[in-house]
């Protein structure tokens, strides 16, 4: 019988606990090929629903990575630096394979870790880092390996999706729903990581690197979170036939990669518009396969542990390959210039309700040659200022930003306008150009 791979698990939170439960099920295939022999966590005595007393215990995950007799380190600590990074580097340096769910670490230090992995021939796998239980990394890395990808667009943060869905469906406040997401175990330790768009940006960085064959380049993701969205936006967008989602999108035009995370309006028939609650989804456009959509549970104990388990079995059965799908030397340096963005946009204004306001606003837009597609004011709004929203026809974002600056200077405008892109479903794709 082949010798079982010995596994050290660093981090016994939601996902680590879930993984130990999978191993505790003796009928699970994991047990045929692998065994957990060492663990590390902050708290040794916490009840995790599984017996950890038979594993070698380490207070310090870096010590586990350096000294435990393991073939694989599973890193489930989190954080782009600190003990997680030191433990992963230590394991790779000594030739132990690493499986990690740590998207921040991979987004920020992916190239460096891939370099160590290539040098020591220790594998670095991370299906659980993106999309929880949804096989996004493997799909893009392996199934699309023979294709030319032009875009990956996804709902990559379950917490934000849960908040937006609850706000829309039940009229609940942002803060109220966030507290729920934290209780349900979707949210990161620091909620800013989720609601600020950073977690989705980490995941997008990883997917874009694999999809487009470029080095992970987190510094060049344009990131906006969901903090400014209001129930008014959600309702007004709904009246216009759109749903608001946090979209993480990478696009490759043949020479430059652009990456952004932002709220966007999706027509109700967009493939991502009906992905609700804490679900995650990815739409990949690749030639010649066309458009593919993956949907499923993107966070939580079971789904994320299942992805770690799949990576463990890949290692045990000799699969895995390069961390980002190709040798580091073949990954292009990401472009440095932010591409110009063209598409349709939603603009919400808070204005005084008096004659001439709409005329003044449309005048500022016309000055930048921006054409209005729809205009909406809801009757019955109380207060010193009222919301009006408009959508534009396709225009350059830079021109819209100029118009918005001029609109903001109008006396009747009470607060900075809020702009969101309208995400097209393919036939009328948002475009970028260098310049
Ligand atoms: N905080 C993440 C989310 C967990 O809400 O999707 C999974 O990475």
What would you note in describing this structure?
Strand 9 (242-252) and strand 10 form a beta hairpin. The strands form three sheets. Strands 7, 8, 9, 10, 11, 12, 14, 15, 16 and 18 form a ten-stranded mixed beta sheet that branches. It is built from 14 helices and 19 strands. The longest helix is centred in the first third of the chain and has 18 residues, at 103-120. Helix 4 runs parallel beside helix 5 (103-120). The protein is of the alpha/beta class and 435 residues long. The N and C termini lie far apart (60 Å). It has three domains: 5-125, NAD(P)-binding Rossmann-like Domain (Rossmann fold, 3-Layer(aba) Sandwich); 136-297, Dihydrodipicolinate Reductase, domain 2, CATH 3.30.360; 342-433, 2-Layer Sandwich (Alpha-Beta Plaits). The protein binds L-homoserine. The site of L-homoserine (HSE) has 11 residues, from helix 7.
Q: Characterize the quaternary organization of these chains.
A: single chain
- Name given to the CATH homologous superfamily of the largest domain: Dihydrodipicolinate Reductase, domain 2
- CATH third-tier fold name of the largest domain: Dihydrodipicolinate Reductase, domain 2
Task: Profile the largest sheet.
Answer: 10 strands, mixed
Computed structural class: alpha/beta
Ligands bound to this protein structure: L-homoserine
Number of domains: 3
Summed up, the helix count is: 14
Distance between the first and last residues' Cα: 60 Å
Beta-strand proportion: 25-35%
Rg over alpha carbons: 23 Å
CATH C-level class of the largest domain: Alpha Beta
How many strands appear in the DSSP assignment? 19
Roughly how much helix do the residues carry, as a percent range?
25-40%
């Amino acid at each position: 019988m082949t010798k079982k791979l010995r596994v050290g698990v660093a981090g016994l939170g939601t996902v680590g606990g879930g993984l130990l439960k999978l191993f505790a099920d003796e009928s699970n295939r994991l047990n045929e090929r692998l065994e957990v022999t060492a663990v590390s966590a902050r708290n040794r005595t916490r009840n995790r629903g599984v017996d950890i007393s038979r594993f070698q215990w380490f207070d310090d995950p870096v010590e586990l990575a350096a000294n435990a007799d393991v073939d694989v380190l599973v890193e489930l600590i989190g954080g782009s630096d600190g003990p997680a990074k030191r433990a992963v580097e230590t394991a790779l340096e000594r030739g132990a394979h690493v499986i990690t769910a740590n998207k921040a670490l991979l987004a920020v230090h992916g190239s460096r870790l891939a370099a160590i992995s290539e040098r020591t021939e220790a594998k670095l796998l991370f299906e659980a880092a993106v999309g929880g239980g949804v096989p996004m990394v493997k799909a893009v890395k392996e199934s699309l390996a023979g294709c030319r990808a032009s875009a990956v667009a996804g709902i990559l943060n379950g917490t934000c999706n849960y908040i937006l869905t609850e706000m829309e469906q039940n009229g609940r406040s942002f803060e109220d729903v966030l507290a729920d997401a934290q209780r349900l175990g979707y949210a990161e330790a620091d909620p800013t990581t989720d609601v600020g768009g950073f977690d989705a940006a980490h995941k997008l960085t990883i997917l874009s690197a694999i999809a487009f064959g470029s080095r992970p380049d987190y510094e060049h993701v344009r990131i906006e979170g969901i903090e400014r969205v209001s129930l008014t936006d959600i309702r007004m967008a709904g009246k216009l036939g759109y749903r608001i989602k946090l979209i993480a999108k990478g696009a490759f035009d043949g020479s430059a990669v652009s990456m952004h995370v932002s709220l966007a309006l999706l027509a109700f028939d967009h493939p991502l518009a009906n992905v609700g609650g804490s679900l995650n989804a990815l739409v990949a456009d690749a030639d010649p396969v066309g458009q593919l959509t993956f949907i499923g549970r993107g966070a939580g104990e079971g789904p994320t542990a299942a992805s770690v388990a799949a990576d463990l079995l890949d290692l045990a059965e000799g699969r895995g390959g390069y961390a980002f799908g190709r040798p580091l030397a073949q990954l292009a340096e990401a472009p440095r210039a932010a591409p110009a963005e063209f598409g349709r946009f939603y603009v919400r204004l808070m204005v005084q309700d008096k004659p001439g306001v709409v005329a003044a606003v449309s005048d500022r837009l016309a000055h930048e040659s921006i054409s209005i597609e729809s205009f909406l004011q809801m009757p019955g709004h109380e207060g010193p200022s009222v919301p009006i929203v408009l959508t534009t026809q396709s225009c350059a974002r830079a021109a819209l930003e100029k118009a918005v600056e001029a609109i903001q200077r109008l006396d009747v405008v009470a607060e900075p306008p809020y702009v969101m892109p309208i995400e097209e479903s393919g036939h009328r794709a948002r475009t970028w150009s260098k310049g």
